[in-house]
Amino acid sequence: MKHGICLPNFGLLGDPSVLVSLARDAEQAGWDGFFPWDHLLVDRSWRTDIADTPTVLAAIAATTSRIRFGPMVAALPRRRPWLVARATATLDVLSGGRLILGVGLGWPTDPEFTAVGDEEDLRRRAEMLDESLAILEGCWSGEPFAFEGRHYRLASAAWLPRPVQRPRIPVWVGALRPFREGPLRRAARWDGVFPASDEYELVTADELAGVVRRMAEMRGPGSGPFDVVVQGMTGGVDAAADEATVTPYREAGATWWLELVTEWQGDLAAIRSRIRRGPPAG
After folding, report:
1. How many domains does the chain have?
2. Has residue 113 been placed in a domain?
3. Which of 9, 48, 158, 222 is deepest in the core (most CB within 10 A)?
C-alpha cells in the first residue's frame, strides 16, 4: 500500500507557498503522494484564504522530483474540459509523469456552484463529468479528436504534447457516502475509486470492503490495475497504533492510504510535524 498526504487548500493551508513547502517536506519524509483539496469557496460566510489548486500543483511539479500529486478531487463540471486537458498534459510533462487526476461532481453545491452561476443539478453535473472524461481521454491521445455531446462540443484537432504517462494520466473517481451505483460505475471505468464522506466521519474498513467488492463485480476478471484510495488519520508516533489503524483498510483492499492533515488537528507547526514524521506503519 502507498501512502500520501491529503489536505485542504484553505484556512491555514490557503497560502500556496505553505502547500508547496509541505509537498517538499512530504517527499523528503518518504510519502508517495501529495493531494490538496480543490475548493473554490467552501462557505460564503468564511473570510479565509483559499489557494488555487492547479497553480499549486504546477509549483509542486516544478520543485519536487519523485512524489506523485494531484487534486483530490477536481470538480470537472465547473471547468472547461479542453482547458483541463491542456493543463493536465502540461503538468504531467513538467513533472516527468507524476500527475494523478482525482475527479468528482463537486461538493458542496452551495456555494461552489450556486454562488457563481454554475450547474446545480447533480444529474446534469454527472452527465457533464462523463463527457469531460471522454474529452480528456481523447485530447490526451495526441491524435485528431472531435466530440459532440449534450453539454460540450469540440472540433477535430490534435492536442499536443501528449502526457508522459501511458496509456493516460491515471484518473481516480470520488464517490461520496452513501455509495450509489452511478459514481461507482464511473469509477470502475477508470483507474481508481476514492470513497469518501461529506461529513466529518471517515469511511470505515467495512464500508471500504463493500466498495472493493462492487468494483470487482463491475470491472470483471482480468481488468488490470486499479487503485482503491482511502483517507484516514494516524499519529506517526506509535508504530503499533498506526499499524492497527491502517491494517484493516489494507486488508479490505486499499492500495493508497491518504493521511488527512488539517488545522482541526492543530496549528501549522503540528501539521508540518506530522508530515515530517513520515508514513504510518501497516
Report:
1. 1
2. yes
3. 9
